[in-house]
Amino acid sequence: MNTESRVYFSKGKLVILWLIFSLWLLGAYPFLFQLLFSYEAFQSADGRLMPLFELAFILLGGVLCLKNRADMAVAGSFVLLAFVSTVIVNERPLSDWINGIRFYVPLLFMLPIIRYAMATEARRDYFMELMDRSLYLFLWLQGPCMIYQLITMGGWDYGGGSLGVFQSGIISELIYMISFYLMIRRWDMSKGYFTNIACNWILVFLLYPSFLNETKSSFLFMLMYFVFLMPLNRRTLKTLAIMIPVTAVAMWAFIYVYNSLYGNKVQSRDTFSLEYLDWYVLGDAADLEMMELAYEATDFDEEVDFQRGLKMAAVPWIMEDQKRDGVWIFGNGVGILKGHSEDDPSDLGGEYKWLFQGTAMTLQMLVLECGALGVVWLIAAMIVLFHRPASMPKKRNRNRQMYGFLVSMLVAVLFYNTSMNIIIFGIIYYYMSFLCSRWSYTDNLGNITPGAPMLQLGGIFTKVRYPRVNTDKQ
Prior knowledge:
Elements: H1 2-8, H2 11-36, H3 39-64, H4 69-89, H5 94-103, H6 105-117, H7 121-153, H8 168-185, H9 193-199, H10 201-205, H11 218-228, H12 236-262, H13 274-282, H14 285-296, H15 308-321, H16 327-330, H17 347-351, H18 353-356, H19 362-386, H20 398-416, H21 423-436, H22 440-445
């Protein structure tokens, strides 16, 4: 009896439950906390909570779950690179190196944890059952949260759904990712493109919260969504010919709703004109002049969130200012923002505070902190993530659709924000990326099937039990 109890509370189960707990806590408590208290109180609480979660993921991913050699190489090489860049090349304190590692926790340790959770069939089935139903419920949760935010705060960047205000970008990314993943899981290869979409109309309907905030990137995500749903077969061209006008109608609806909510508030520009797109990404002469003023002044204290294109263009200014050999190779060292903080930055972060206000981008931070070697490391880390094991056959082309969508999302995110450095995004993104090269796992489990009731999403609400066998042996 004691043995059975000991096995039941195995390390594998505890890791899985920790992932699900983290998903729901980090994915729901911001909205609830801000609803009950205030955004300022949330910032204070989040500043204390996130280091604890980051430490937990470091311990799990770096101690308990780090067993795969490729994962060891990914994590170990970055930790070494960050140490050399920060402590040796830039002669900054160890505390900056330690705090800087926190910023990259999902990129370093999420894959080993996901791999551990799926290392045996028993663990894998249990984890996928819990994860799939959590994703479906999380998708439903966003509508009520964002409707409330639209009514009470007017939407805009406040429409972050259950992730709270100022998280509109990441929640839009997650909405499209989750809906796409579940759509692919329910895709019936014996049916046509539009028949499948019609049979799973609820998943398309659940994209509507992305219309309720000011995230213009949702326009791109919608295009990716419908394009990558196309199966790669002989009927693709015919489907494409029909899909183009249908997608155009869907985008027109998105633009119409967006302009109805926000169009009259955007500096008299047509929100989706080429002129506005150019200004949104690259700014105009006035924005460039203001950024040059911020760069040259030592006491620039205005709260300005410069356009992403301008911020990327400013990266060479900062790199060349350092006047050190090898700055483009090793960067300026990690910990510029001491983790995720703008309130207590490093000397470099304080000097160029204007650059880090508002939106930051993963690629921007990686180049500034780790230089060209950091970019090479990221490419290698993503190759490891998407690598198909030799034991996994090339299973139908649905995994190619997931590959295309997730890689496109990765490229967009690198230039758009720091979602890849956020734990909740990392849990979901790494889970889907791990599965898309092991698609036979989804077929073997069969918890989501095309023929089951749509609201239940194919048996997604069946009771889940963890097996009473030793699942810790790999």
